[in-house]
Amino acid sequence: MLKKLSHSMIGQTLFSLVFACIIFILGITVKWRHENRPVYQLVKQHKKPYIIISWHEHILGMTWNLPRPITTLNSPHSDGRILGKAVQMVGLNVVWGSSNKQALTSLRQLAKELKKGRNVGITPDGPRGPARTLAMGPIALAHMSDIEIIPVVFAADRQWLLRSWDRTRIPKPFSNAIILWGDPIRLDMLNTAKRTQISKQSLENWRCQIEDRLNALTQKCDELCAKSFKTNSRKKRAP
């Protein structure tokens, strides 16, 4: 019944409203802390656009914390539309498409957003995985637009993990969370004239490197969160 409801316009709107409420409640009750703040301020100042990437498992936490204005890529399928409408309700713009299937039209739309000076957000292992495997979409977009990629992740000291393909993280209300921003990444291209001639192997090499960086950033954030809030709890218990 729920699946059938999710395919109807009324059902999608209701589910979207529920997700938007969850994002809002988590946004105002979780104690968020940004690490590598110079990069966070760089994005927030909005002097130029960036391609911001985060794994699909971080989507609930990052939706609230991405500096506005920003346009995100969302799947046009029923589940994706529910989430897409929810993020629109909390202030994000949406382009409908996928980073790994029939992506050219979506990438062109995102490139137009970047030309307008707007940041773009992509979950590069979405909408259906495999988890923590980077699709070529962000690399192709960075190649098309010559815009830097910024990876970002979060971790909370208390959270639920869904039994979904991506193990979605849901920070518990009133938990402590760290948002870790990675340094901007620019594809190593010689000049504008030669950018169109870059080989598929070069793009694949960059895809692998950025996938590794995002996975390393995820692990670093988890370790930083565990260490930071474990230390704080010890201090609170000290006489």
Structure, described:
The protein contains 9 helices and 9 strands. The mean pLDDT is 89. Helix 5 links the parallel strand 3 and strand 4. With 239 residues, the chain is of the alpha/beta class. It has one domain: Glycerol-3-phosphate (1)-acyltransferase (3-Layer(aba) Sandwich). A 7-stranded mixed sheet has the order 1-9-6-2-5-3-4, sandwiched between helices. Strands 7-8 form a two-stranded antiparallel ribbon. Helix 2 crosses helix 4 and helix 2 (9-29) packs across helix 5. The chain has helices at 2-6, 9-29, 37-45, 59-65, 78-89, 104-115, 137-145, 192-195, 200-237; strands at 31-35, 51-53, 70-74, 93-96, 119-122, 149-156, 159-161, 169-171, 176-181. The chain is 49% helix and 17% strand.
